[in-house]
Design goal:
mainly alpha; Four Helix Bundle (Hemerythrin (Met), subunit A); 71% helix
């Protein structure tokens, strides 16, 4: 059976989880832009102070740190540090033909962990809470990578 086809329920599970995580990465970037425009602050670079159609009267305070914007930027950076590894490990995991149940636990488990991490960060929960959700997602990615290594070596 060709494992990388939507006819394979394990790959279909991966496709759903991967698509959700791609939307999460892209959506977080747009959330950051929305927050910058909403409060006209938290711009990242000095050239952002040049007048333009969306920023007709720039103010030097616009490039000062702004927690509302920077919190979204930190969430985006965290996604960019974690989701690409999931995308790669998840696809490799599919190719070693795991059981559907294990695939659902790992792939959807990662999605849930990342969404919980987002909610914890967005609502200013403790570092320990964010770290718990990060750890769950990280352990899932590591487990998938190890599963692939064992399957290939065995």
């Amino acid at each position: 059976m060709n494992l990388v086809t939507l006819e394979n329920p394990v790959f279909a599970t991966y496709a759903i989880a991967a698509a959700l995580m791609v939307l999460k990465i892209m959506g977080q970037g747009w959330m950051t832009v929305y927050r910058m425009m909403k409060c006209s602050a938290g711009f990242a670079s000095p050239e952002d102070l040049r007048p333009g159609p969306l920023n007709k009267a720039p103010d030097p305070d616009q490039i000062k740190p702004n927690d509302y914007v920077d919190r979204s930027r930190r969430m985006h950076r965290n996604d960019l540090e974690n989701i690409p590894a999931f995308l790669v490990a998840g696809l490799l995991f599919v190719t070693v033909d795991p059981s559907l149940l294990l695939a659902q636990i790992f792939l959807y488990g990662f999605v849930v962990a990342r969404l919980c991490h987002f909610l914890a960060y967005a609502t200013k929960q403790s570092h320990e809470m964010r770290a718990t959700f990060y750890t769950v997602g990280s352990v899932i990615v590591i487990a998938m990578a190890l599963y692939v290594l064992v399957a290939v070596i065995a």
